[in-house]
Design brief:
The complex is a heterodimer of chains A (871) and B (454).
Chain A: H1 2-10, H2 18-34, H3 47-60, H4 67-80, H5 82-94, H6 97-110, E1 114-117, E2 130-132, E3 135-138, E4 146-147, E5 150-151, H7 158-163, H8 186-194, H9 208-214, H10 217-225, E6 232-234, H11 236-247, E7 255-257, E8 263-265, E9 269-271, H12 276-303, H13 311-334, H14 344-347, H15 362-388, H16 395-408, H17 412-438, H18 446-454, E10 464-466, H19 478-482, E11 485-487, H20 495-520, H21 528-531, H22 534-542, H23 547-555, H24 569-580, H25 582-615, H26 629-637, H27 642-645, E12 648-650, E13 661-663, H28 675-700, H29 711-745, H30 757-778, H31 787-807, H32 811-834, H33 839-843, H34 855-859
Parallel strand pairs in A: 6-9
Antiparallel strand pairs in A: 1-3, 2-3, 4-5, 7-8, 10-11, 12-13
Helix pairs in contact in A: 1-2, 2-5, 3-5, 4-5, 11-15, 12-15, 13-15, 13-17, 15-17, 16-17, 17-24, 18-20, 20-25, 23-24, 25-28, 25-29, 25-30, 28-29, 28-30, 28-31, 29-30, 29-32, 31-32
Chain B: E1 6-12, H1 13-30, E2 53-55, E3 61-63, E4 65-69, H2 73-80, E5 93-95, H3 106-129, E6 134-142, H4 147-162, E7 167-174, H5 188-201, E8 205-210, H6 211-222, H7 229-248, E9 270-276, H8 299-306, E10 326-335, H9 339-349, E11 364-368, E12 381-389, H10 393-408, H11 413-417, H12 424-444
Parallel strand pairs in B: 1-4, 1-6, 4-5, 6-7, 7-8, 8-9, 10-11
Antiparallel strand pairs in B: 2-3, 9-12, 10-12
Helix pairs in contact in B: 1-2, 1-4, 1-7, 3-4, 4-5, 5-10, 5-12, 6-7, 8-9, 10-12
The chains are: A mainly alpha (871), B alpha/beta (454).
């Protein structure tokens, strides 16, 4: 057995020592026992499988010429000794390709099993190997040497026998592709391996290893450059750490900063199996991005201020600093550094990059990092714009912007960032709302508070902006009409709610102003005096301290990490808040007081301007801004509200005959009487006054001697009286009807729908506007504005002149004026005819009004024969 | 002069003072004043108490009323009633010293009055001077008795003389002119004709209250065959109260009695009145009271009803003559009325009204009269028509013919002749004047009225 084995391995002429043969025998035994070559499942490969593998290998190694030789030997072994056959297959399997190739060539040639065709002229016919142009040819009928039927192997398996440990079970096949795990520099690498590498094998050929090195990019590069190149060869973790550091603006061996604080790649680098080019390409975009980011962050820092009163700026700064930390923390966590994370709860919700994993796909991870950083960069860049023009951005606008960002940013990381901003803005806005309702601190005295509230640049203006003109506000409330403050609206907070926030604030301003006025003067002209008690108010403000809790409760429902996109979050919070803020209740109460007063005020205005001329004796006073005290007292006795009487005065500047009176009611009632409205009231006053004057004049003629024997004149005056009376009565009735409508609209007690007082104030405002329009219509002031007034004035002056003439005993002149009156009456009726709604009222005034359409009267002569009417 | 002036009332004679009682009873109610002149309600802006009351030094309200009678019975009775004992200013009450009354004799009343005229006028002038702005005087009396007609006539003359520019409006109760009716004063046509002359010459408006019609209407309203004076007086008080409501409750349409232009052609200033103020009981016997249960009273209904000749409180008004014309009229509507309903009603009634042929205007003015803010109205809509129409003339004609009959028989003429200073010429003069008035009424419905005499 020993000799057979020895022969098999070493051939006949071996002179080996016994113990080596014994060792080989041990190998044979162990191979048979352990069957060390296994497949992926750990099952030993059978002889057939190994044979097949060998055949493939032979083809692969282009040893086709030796196929027959090898198969012959194996066949023989198989027939004579199965154990040996298996042993040979295993050892051959383990034999490195190069060794197999070489030894099979050497030994088979040596044994003359294979011929080598040498294509040269020195033909050695005795050479039995055929070797032509390095091509081996199988020699027909040659046989391997045999000893006890055991052939000698035509290849050398001894290297395997020396190194292999047969006790080990083979590792699965795929692990053959093991990766470089080393982070040594190539020099070390070379130092370790060059010794074992041989550039040329014993056949004078360049070895495969050397060939590999020759095709190495780095070497080629070096050769091209004509000098040594130094590069990093990194393992992936170090590589990623360097990249992440760079993105966090930390320099490393690989990435260093130049004079402009820009990152550059200090040396070429390869990572694992990536070569320099691949790595460079991958790194290029990262470098670009990192520089963009650091540049932006630097700019951003330049815009940071340490002290500012602009709290939205502070908020943004805080946010940006936090974001930097989160960004950094995220990378720390990805690098497996668990400790000292400031924002653990936030970063843990992110997609961990899992850099510690050995099997990660570097391209994929690089891309993920790139995506995250670019997301961060884009948000930072947007924020940079915001910080630069912070005054252009209101909290509401930013909130909307961040909400949109949190919904539509392409990267998850960016959406998260926007969301965090969104949440902090919601918190900010909600707190601001509370803040402006509670005015930061409990204020000891109200005058201070009032001062704060009425200074236009006080803090509350951060959320509210001055619209400067109420016309710019869509559907303004009465508070906004008084002080056109608006809270911005966005898709996150609709106009209605924004106005609901603004209203109580403005209302409160007025309330406070009222209170302030009260402390200055001690009359009862302010609203807040008795109606809303101080104590109640103080109690309300005592709740201020609880508000921290209340706000927290309201805000606790917002989840920073969810980007589900609930549009109403802000609205919901503010709505909840409004329910709890004491100011809302206070203003609600105040509104009610104002409301009640408004209704009374309307009543006063209507009565005053439709009847005051009756009581104002000296109607030509133009020199006083307000009715003087005496007059007021007298008027008060006539039943006019003393409080409101004070608001009425004469307009000294007015040159218009019909806008003599002004109304200056205390805030906030002044909202109802704009210049236009005052003007209209004044015109009502004037027109009615003219009619009244005329009527008075006619009445004066009643006992005149002139009329005694002048039935014609009597009739004339009766006609004038009836006409003026009817016009006046129609106007007053129409105003009365409008007023009834107004009062019906303001009858909130019987209204089924419950509305808050300040909504009711708006109803009030609108109803009053409608009333004003109706009154203008009643006096025909709206169509052909002014013309009707002029005609009435003409009629009235005719009436007055006729009356005067009559009283003076001048019947002829009285009659002349009456004729003039008739002319004017016809003009007036012509105008009435244009007013389809009101014409029926005046139809009865038509001279000879048999014809309802009045056509006849226009054509009929009214001048000569006034008795022409046939009955 | 402008502004809403005050009104003073002067009540003369038994009937006049009975009307005073009813009138002031309703006034204190409507103005929220108790029997001691104190306000019972919080002041309402529209309540113009000072129109009829003035405030004494202790701020309690005192009626601006002067009560005059030649016999003390009615006034004393009134002053003993708890409602009035503390209300009136006793300085404003004139009762004759001897207390015998005028004995239903105009001449007696007139000439007795002359003895005390100074005193009475002193009271009235003092009262007027205490008032800033007196616009008019309401005068209640009857023209059939002695004091109301005689002393009343004298006072009307004096008042006109003293207040030439004030509006004097009398509420004159005319004796029952019905042939079948009974009257306790046989000489009432004499009294009437003598009073009539003063009523033609002095007041601005005479609201003619025909006793017969009052009886009839009160009977209808109170569902009794024998209405008492109280019933009748409350009716008159109602007329007086409604006709002054505009001034008392601050109407800007007609803020003062001066605005009332009822008599465009004096002396045709005899006003008939028609009133409807209860949805349940129509005051007109023509309308079945039950009818009103079945329908809702609307402005149009009230208007229609008031414009019927039979609604007039003049018994002869039912004798409609085809050419009777409305010279001027005011309709006051009260209650829950929306302004526009009156306006539309006004347009629809226009064609129903008959006017003098030369009229190119509408004699009827309809307006909403305010109600007392303190008294809850029991009715939805009520109304008063003050109508100056030629249809009042038959009443005068009838009374004139009664006078003529009596005079031709010289019946009871001695009663007048025995009064000092009285002469029959006074009666003859009065007859002429009444005749002239009747002529005037005839003329005004003619085409040529305006150019008459030119």
């Amino acid at each position: 057995m020993l000799s057979s084995l020895s022969f098999l391995i070493h051939g006949q002429n071996n002179n080996q020592q016994q113990n080596q043969t014994l060792k080989e025998l041990e190998c044979l035994f162990l191979v048979s026992k352990n069957k060390p070559v296994r497949d992926a499942d750990g099952n030993p490969l059978s002889a057939e499988e190994l044979t097949e593998d060998l055949n493939k290998r032979i083809i692969k190694l282009k040893l086709d010429a030796f196929q027959t030789v090898i198969n012959d030997i194996l066949d023989k072994l198989y027939t004579h000794d199965e154990a040996l056959h298996y042993f040979v297959l295993v050892t051959t399997y383990r034999l490195p390709d190069q060794h197999l190739e070489q030894s099979v060539k050497d030994l088979s040639t040596q044994q003359n099993l294979v011929g080598r065709l040498i294509n040269d002229n020195s033909t050695n016919l005795y050479i039995q190997i055929v070797k032509i142009d390095d091509v081996y040819k199988y020699r027909l009928y040659s046989k391997p040497m045999e000893h006890n039927n055991i052939p000698r192997l035509a290849w050398d398996i001894t290297p395997v026998l020396k190194t292999l440990k047969f006790s080990d079970v083979d590792v699965p096949v795929f692990r053959k592709n093991w990766l470089f795990k080393y982070s040594y520099f190539i020099k070390k690498f070379s130092a370790k391996y060059t010794s074992s590498f041989k550039a040329v094998d014993e056949w004078g050929l360049i070895s495969t290893e050397f060939r590999g090195i020759l095709s190495c990019e780095e070497l080629n590069l070096s050769v091209r450059e004509g000098q040594l190149i130094e590069f990093f060869h990194l393992d992936s973790l170090t590589f990623f750490k360097n990249i992440l550091d760079m993105h966090r603006d930390i320099s490393s061996d690989l990435f260093q900063l130049d004079g402009d604080n820009h990152f550059y790649q200090s040396r070429p680098c390869r990572v694992g199996e990536w070569n320099l080019t691949t790595t460079r390409i991958v790194l290029q975009k990262h470098l670009f991005l990192a520089n963009q980011l650091s540049e932006t962050v630097r700019k951003l820092k330049d815009h940071f201020v340490t002290t500012t009163s602009n709290s939205i700026r502070l908020l943004i700064q805080r946010y940006l600093i936090d974001e930097q930390h989160i960004f950094s923390d995220y990378f720390e966590l990805s690098l497996g550094n668990q400790s000292a994370l400031q924002f653990r709860s936030i970063v843990e919700s992110f997609n961990n990059l899992n850099l510690l994993n050995q099997n990660l796909n570097k391209f994929e991870v690089c891309d993920k990092i790139y995506e995250t950083v670019s997301a961060h960069y884009h948000v930072i860049r947007e924020m940079n714009k915001v910080v630069q023009n912070i005054n252009d951005y209101s909290p509401i606008l930013l909130n909307e912007m961040s909400f949109t960002g949190s919904q539509s940013a392409p990267q998850f990381y960016a959406r998260q960032m926007w969301r965090r901003l969104n949440v902090s803005l919601i918190q900010f806005i909600v707190k601001s709302v509370v803040f402006i309702f509670l005015f930061k601190k409990k204020l000891d005295n109200f005058s201070k508070l009032a001062e704060m509230l009425t200074t236009p640049d006080s803090e509350l203006m951060e959320l509210l902006t001055d619209a400067s003109d109420v016309k710019l506000i869509k559907d303004p409330s009465i508070w906004q009409r008084l002080n056109p403050l608006i809270m911005e609206s966005s898709q996150c907070i609709d106009e209605l709610l924004a106005n609901r926030v603004a209203d109580p604030i403005i209302g409160y301003q007025f309330f406070i102003n009222d209170k302030k006025n009260k402390s200055w003067k001690s009359d009862d002209s302010t609203f807040a005096l008795t109606d809303i008690q101080d104590a109640e108010e103080l109690e309300l403000f005592a709740k201020t301290s609880n508000f921290e809790k209340i706000i927290d409760g309201i805000l606790s429902e917002i989840d920073v990490n969810s980007t589900s996109g609930n549009l109403d979050e802000l609205s919901t919070c503010i709505n909840k808040l409004l329910e709890q803020v004491p100011t809302t209740m206070l203003v609600e109460k105040y509104s009610r007081v104002v409301l009640e007063k408004s209704v009374r005020f309307f009543g006063f205005l209507k009565t005053f301007f439709t009847s005051a001329y009756i009581h104002l004796k000296d109607r030509n006073i133009l020199s006083r801004t307000t009715l003087d005290t005496l007059e007021r007292e007298k008027m008060h006795k006539q039943g006019y509200d003393a409080e409101f009487l004070k608001t009425v005065g004469y307009d000294m500047k007015s040159t218009m005959e019909d806008s003599l009176l002004t109304v200056n009611p205390p805030e906030p009632l002044n909202v109802f009487v704009s210049t236009g409205v005052t003007d209209l009231y004044s015109q009502v006053f004037t027109v009615l006054n003219m009619l009244h004057t005329a009527l008075e004049a006619v009445i004066e003629t009643r006992n005149s001697e002139t009329l005694k024997h002048e039935p014609r004149l009597r009739y004339a005056f009766f006609h004038m009286n009836t006409t003026v009376f009817a016009i006046r009565k129609n106007m007053l009735s129409l105003i009365e009807a409008s007023f009834e409508t107004l009062m019906k609209a303001l009858d909130f007690e019987s209204a089924s729908e419950h509305k808050s007082s300040h909504e009711l104030l708006n109803v009030c405002y609108k109803a009053h506007r409608k009333f004003i329009r109706d009154v203008a219509g009643a006096l025909m002031l709206n169509s052909k504005r002014g013309t009707t007034g002029r005609v009435i004035r003409l009629m009235v002056s005719s009436v007055s002149q006729a009356s005067r003439a009559c009283v003076n005993g001048d019947a002829v002149s009285a009659d002349k004026h009456y004729q003039q009156f008739l002319t004017n009456l016809l003009i007036f009726l012509d105008q009435c005819r244009l007013d389809h709604v009101r014409y029926p009222l005046y139809r009865s005034l038509e001279i000879g009004s048999d014809e309802t359409d009045g056509r006849r009267s226009r054509s009929s002569s009214f001048s000569d024969d006034i008795s022409c009417r046939s009955y | 002069m402008s502004g809403t002036g005050a009104l003073m009332t002067v009540h003369v004679g038994q009937c006049g003072n009975q009307l005073a009682q009813a009138f002031w009873k309703s006034m204190v109610d409507e103005h929220g004043i108790n029997e001691r002149g104190q306000t019972t309600h919080e002041d309402d802006m529209n309540d113009k108490k000072d129109l009829l009351f003035y405030q004494a030094d202790d701020d309690h309200y005192v009626p601006r009323a002067v009560l005059v009678d030649l016999e003390p019975r009615v006034i004393n009775g009134m002053m003993q009633s708890p409602s009035f004992s503390n209300l009136f200013n006793t300085d404003n009450i004139f009762m004759s010293d001897h207390g015998g009354g005028a004995g239903n004799n105009w001449a007696s009343g007139y000439f007795q009055g002359q003895e005390v005229k100074e005193k009475i006028m002193d009271i009235i002038i003092r009262e007027a001077e205490n008032t800033d702005n007196l616009d008019g005087i309401l005068f209640t009396h009857s023209v059939s008795g002695g004091t109301g007609s005689g002393t009343g006539s004298l006072l009307l003359e004096s008042l006109r003389e003293a207040f030439p520019k004030k509006v004097i409006q009398t509420y004159s109760v005319f004796a029952n002119s019905d042939a079948t009716g009974t009257t306790d004063v046989v000489v009432h046509p004499y009294n009437w004709i003598l009073s009539m002359q003063r009523l033609i010459e002095n007041p601005d408006h005479v609201v003619v209250l025909d006793n017969a019609a009052l009886h009839r209407l009160a009977a209808g309203k109170f569902k009794t065959d024998t209405p008492t004076f109280d019933h009748i007086n409350s009716l008159v008080a109602r007329i007086m109260s409604t006709s002054t409501a505009m001034y008392r409750f601050n109407s800007s349409v007609c803020p003062s009695i001066r605005y009332l232009d009822l008599a465009p052609f004096p002396p045709m200033h005899f006003i008939q009145s028609g009133i409807i103020y209860n949805v349940l009981f129509s005051i007109s016997p023509v309308v079945d009271p039950n009818e009103n249960f079945t329908r809702k009273t609307s402005v149009a209904d009230v208007t229609r009803f008031l414009l019927k000749p039979t609604s007039m409180m003049v018994s002869t008004a039912s004798r409609v003559r085809p050419n009777d014309c409305m010279l001027s009229a005011y309709m006051f509507l009260q209650g829950q009325i929306e302004a526009h309903t009156i306006m539309s009603a006004e347009q629809t009634v226009d064609f129903q009204i008959k006017r003098p042929p030369f009229y190119m205007l509408k004699p009827l003015r309809m307006m909403h009269a305010p109600l007392s803010p303190y008294v809850r109205p029991q009715y939805k809509v009520s109304g008063l028509l003050l109508n100056n129409s030629t249809s009042v003339a038959p009443l005068f004609e009838s009374l004139l013919s009664k006078y003529d009959r009596l005079r031709s028989k010289k019946a009871f003429i001695d009663k007048f002749e025995k009064i000092d200073n009285f002469s029959l010429d006074m009666m003859d003069e009065a007859t002429h004047i009444v005749q002239d008035l009747l002529d005037e009424y005839k003329a005004v419905v003619q085409n040529g009225y305006l150019t008459r005499g030119l």
